[in-house]
Write a structure and sequence with these properties.
CATH class of the largest domain: Alpha Beta
Low-confidence stretches: 12-32, 582-595
Bound molecules: ligand MGD, iron/sulfur cluster, molybdenum atom
Oligomer: single chain
Largest sheet: 7 strands, mixed
Number of helices: 27
Strand content: 15-25%
Distance between the termini: 54 Å
Length: 748
């Protein structure tokens, strides 16, 4: 056994219980039986969504987690958590955890357990063989927004600077690429400006393509804490749970957001309801934007969005008259064929009305996964580590000097995007793929093409907590990973807050943290010396801190993990100066929660070279696949319940969460369509698109409009239907809209 591996496996034996097998869910949510009074507690942030709630983990005398409650002192969640948070420990003890590496045996065709040295040897032999035959760039990885920042950075550095890859990407492309590009172009840096306190301080909150009641329940609780009697507007084709709780639902036609936002901007100008002082002092190209907007008349906007003129007037009234307006968007915007310009149309509205940099305002993208924000800064895919540019020689040499490596090792262009990597596999330029903490075979758009693409790979490695995911089952080699709660590191939440996760549970069998796996791979590959300084997650954190210096995301004022822990999380930017200066009283959340809650741009200074935010805009384009006679309906997809997470690999392992969510795929269909198609409630129906089909139970409901249906993405057949269209700027897939038809099935 390699000495380092022995150490790792040994170190993992740490404080631990073997005789006491506890399933936290057994006790019900958060209740700890008296006989199991915990020996200690420790706080850490949740590893599901980007809200970043702090959970209080209760440990037995051996330091092993036995249950959790919530942290009442954390500014983010103030003692609240959604069902996934309460059940966060349960997936760790699932029976299908993968406990050893698995290698496909060519003789039997099965994945069979092997030891780590054999797995590493197979990894190196196959991947190096591919590179020798097809060139360095014939290897890629697809990773995630769900591992800690230190792991993402190590992976990105190892793959590009150590293993010679150029094109790597992650599921953040499916999710946040649009926000990343939109902010970068408009503000000069990928910088979501808000803090959660803004939910409480707005006079009007406008949610566009976001369903926080389901997807970000604790953020929604913060909205409910707003004492300003706010207008709450939900712009979504569906009457979602959030729309039902809102004061105004705006049920626009799918993918008509860009026209709507331009129409509103035009009406605001006509009404004189813009902040000319702010525009003049802090923005550029407004005049061009204003003249571009003239064609977006009230009539055209009403016609193309399907909204009555009164609704448009009401929306304009709200924006024009309320003092502090915040605009929030999520996947209904980001997952579209013109998503970057749509996100920027939201940014434009905030800029022209001066709704930025003040409490309760902002053009605010809500993030998805627990560490999508970390992957935007340190994924090393579209931006070089720390938000730098691969194409700039001075950026490459700066990063190389911090890492202590030769700048020539850094590629001089950004990665191809997820869809282009899969295309590359299809066309034969990429032959080896390493998939880390994502489940491509379920979550990728037009998913039916993936098995054929996989066949073209000479070697597929999947690194996951479970070998049962759709993607892991296709692998040549499975590397067993520790999950949240089994390792240390940092996650960055939607409001730019660095929060800490800790090892409170021993990973099963020989599973190792992703960090440890990357270190082993580096050594086995022969490039371990490049990462000698990355000796532990906290040592890596110190390197990332240095990479952040003088960048807008600087966090050099944070001394250690312990500092973050003690402070209740820390938002970037946080420089040495911030570390010394006390928080101004007016920026404190409340006397009970004295942590800092800070927003960006209070001085009107943006990160562009001229310090001005840019108005960016383009002509709207029709949906790539419009309904027609054969496929007359529009399919919308998204989250289904607060108890389900994506492809279900974690949340399906909890009895509690399974009880809280439907077990079978259902399709929301309007009563008018159900009547026309003679479909009864709960009847099994077939949804077809040009690419595939999915059977689902009919849920007849007026939450969807006639001509539209909705499917939750948590079931594996949904992406058989979706149409592969991509936004040209962010290359984010347009998961939310394609043409389908619904058919009755005679017999089940
Ligand atoms: N419970 C749970 N929570 C989660 C997740 C989960 O899987 N489960 N995933 C997390 C992740 S990674 C993400 S990215 C977020 C996603 O969070 P959200 O984006 O809030 O969730 P979605 O349901 O994907 O999409 C939001 C809404 O977009 C609407 N929509 C569809 N088409 C359009 C359109 O053309 N225009 C407009 N305006 N709206 C449209 C849909 O009807 C849907 O209600 O959730 C995070 N939180
Ligand atoms: N139709 C449709 N499709 C969609 C969407 C939609 O709205 N509609 N939304 C898209 C969006 S926004 C997203 S973010 C994607 C999500 O899609 P995926 O990323 O494919 O979904 P997950 O189920 O979160 O997959 C994460 C995997 O990581 C594993 N894992 C968890 N923790 C760890 C860890 O610490 N280490 C390792 N190695 N593995 C770990 C889990 O077991 C799981 O298999 O789906 C996208 N797909
Ligand atoms: S809202 Fe998000 S971060 Fe908070 S407990 Fe639920 S899943 Fe975890
Ligand atoms: Mo996401």
């Amino acid at each position: 056994m390699i000495p380092q591996l022995e150490d790792l496996l040994h170190a993992r034996q740490g404080p631990m219980t073997s005789e006491l097998v506890l399933r936290p869910g057994d006790f019900g949510l958060g209740r700890i039986p008296a006989r199991l009074k915990p020996a200690a507690t420790t706080d850490m942030v949740c590893g599901f969504c980007s809200t970043g709630c702090s959970l209080r983990v209760h440990l037995n005398e051996r330091g092993q987690a036995i249950n959790l409650t919530t942290n009442p002192h954390y500014s983010v969640n103030q003692g609240m958590a959604c069902p996934k948070g309460w059940e966060a420990l349960t997936p760790l003890s699932a029976p299908d955890r993968v406990t050893t590496p698995l290698l496909r045996n060519p003789a039997t065709g099965n994945l069979e357990p092997v030891d780590w040295p054999t797995a590493l040897a197979a990894f190196v032999k196959n991947f190096k063989g591919i590179q020798e035959r097809h060139g360095k760039t014939s290897l890629s990885f697809l990773s995630t927004g769900q591992i800690v920042m230190e792991e993402m950075a190590l992976l990105g550095a190892l793959a590009k600077f150590g293993m010679g890859m150029t094109d790597v990407d992650s599921n953040t492309r499916q999710c946040m690429a649009t926000s990343h590009v939109a902010y970068k172009q408009s503000f000069g840096f990928d910088a979501p400006p808000f803090t959660y306190k803004d939910f409480e301080e707005s006079d009007a909150l406008i949610f566009i393509g976001a369903n926080p009641c389901i997807a970000h329940p604790i953020m929604w609780q913060r909205v409910m804490m707003n004492k300003h009697n706010p207008d709450i507007v939900v712009i979504d084709p569906r009457r979602t749970e959030t729309a039902m709780a809102a004061t105004l639902h705006v049920p626009l036609l799918p993918k008509s957001d860009l026209v709507l936002l331009y129409g509103l901007a035009n009406l605001l100008i006509e009404r004189g309801a813009i902040k000319q002082d702010f525009i003049d002092a802090h923005t550029s190209s407004f005049a061009d934007f204003a003249s571009f907007l003239r064609e977006f008349t009230l009539d055209r906007t009403a016609r193309e969005t399907g909204l009555p003129a009164e609704t448009l007037h009401r929306l304009v009234d709200i924006i024009a008259t309320r003092e502090r307006v915040s605009l929030w968007w999520t996947m209904g915007v980001n997952q579209g064929h013109e998503s970057t310009r749509t996100a920027q149309a939201i940014i434009n509205l905030a800029l022209m009305t001066g709704n930025i940099g003040r409490p309760g305002t902002g053009a605010n993208s809500i993030t998805g996964q627990c560490n999508a924000m970390g992957s935007r800064l340190f994924g090393n895919a579209s931006s070089l580590l720390g938000g730098y540019d691969f194409a700039k020689a001075e950026h490459r040499s700066h990063v190389a000097s911090i890492l202590g490596i030769d700048p020539a090792l850094i590629p001089d262009r950004a990665s191809l995007a997820y869809d282009q990597i899969l295309d590359g596999i299809d066309k034969g330029s990429i032959r080896g793929l390493w998939v880390i903490a994502t489940n491509t075979a379920h979550s990728w758009i037009n998913q039916k093409t993936f098995p054929a693409i996989r066949e073209k790979l000479e070697f597929l490695v999947v690194q996951d907590m479970y070998a049962t995911t759709e993607t892991a089952r296709m692998a040549d080699l499975v590397l067993p990973a520790a999950g949240w709660g089994e390792k240390d590191g940092i996650l960055i939440n939607s409001e730019r807050r660095l929060g800490i996760v800790k090892k409170v549970s021993r990973a099963p069998g020989q599973a190792l943290s992703d960090f440890a796996i990357f270190k082993l791979v580096a050594d086995a590959w022969g490039c371990g010396h490049l990462f000698a300084k990355w000796s532990s997650p906290e040592a890596a954190f110190q390197i990332l801190k240095e990479l952040s210096r003088r960048q807008p995301c600087e966090f050099t004022g944070i001394s250690s993990y312990e500092h973050i822990d003690r402070s209740g999380g820390i938002q970037w930017p946080f420089t040495d100066k911030d570390a010394i200066a006390p928080t101004p009283i007016h920026e404190r959340t409340s006397t009970a929660h004295p942590e800092r809650e800070r927003r960006l741009f209070s001085d009107g200074q943006f990160f562009t070279p001229d310090r001005r935010a840019k108005f960016l805009f383009d002509q709207p384009r029709p949906m790539p696949e419009l309904p027609d006679a054969d496929y007359p309906m529009i399919l919308l997809t998204g989250r289904g319940s607060s108890a389900q997470w994506h492809t279900g690999s974690r949340t399906d392992k909890s009895d509690v969460l399974r009880k809280l969510a439907p077990r079978e795929l259902y399709v929301e269909i309007n009563p008018i369509d159900a009547d026309r198609l003679r479909i009864a409630n709960n009847e099994l129906v077939r949804v077809r698109s040009r690419r595939g089909e999915a059977d689902a139970l009919a849920l007849i409901t007026s939450t969807v409009q006639p001509g539209q249906i909705y499917l939750p993405m948590h079931f594996d057949t949904v992406n058989r239907l979706t149409f592969p269209a991509f936004d040209p700027h962010s290359r984010q897939p347009s998961y939310k809209a394609c043409a389908v038809r619904v058919e009755r099935i005679k017999k089940r």
